Amino acid sequence: MSAPRLLIVPGLNDSPPGHWQSWLQASHHGAVRVVQHDWRSPQLERWSARIASTLARAGDGPWIAVAHSFGVLALVHHLARQPDARVAAALLVAPADPHKFGLGAALPAQRLSTPATMVLSRNDPWLALAEGRHWAARWGCHVLDLGDAGHINVASGYRSLPFAARWVTQVQQRLARESRPERASFAEWSFAA
What we know:
Layout: E1 5-9, H1 20-26, E2 32-33, H2 44-58, E3 63-69, H3 70-81, E4 87-95, E5 116-120, H4 129-139, E6 142-145, H5 162-179
């Protein structure tokens, strides 16, 4: 198995150079960013398809996906449609409220096949904490509550996000351990006489 690579999935209006997603991408050689045709038009089907086409062009995984805001909804939609995707783990940061976009019924009602961690804020204007916990439970995500962190973007003061970098490193290390062939015990070795 090749080394895990980082997939960045921004939300509406992309993540500008000062955004923590851009910071994270710059710190990971070989990271790939999903680039939407229209950053101002949140169309779930198109954004989800763009994730699929980006992965197809980028080559083999495994991939570790880090999504923000509407990008979370697009990634979850993609993962539900393609559960065999090469995405080995997902970090879902400050998801947008699906109901604000009329997408509640378009998103999966069951646990994702990909392990995921959802990062929530208590005062996110795009998603109430209780609603975020509901979606996390629905999709089988581990939840990390950052407290009063706004939308966890540049406007909220997040130009870097060290815990996200640590999360990516930990997932990379876990995947590397899992891909190592098991060592044969001394008793299994055969010696030629």
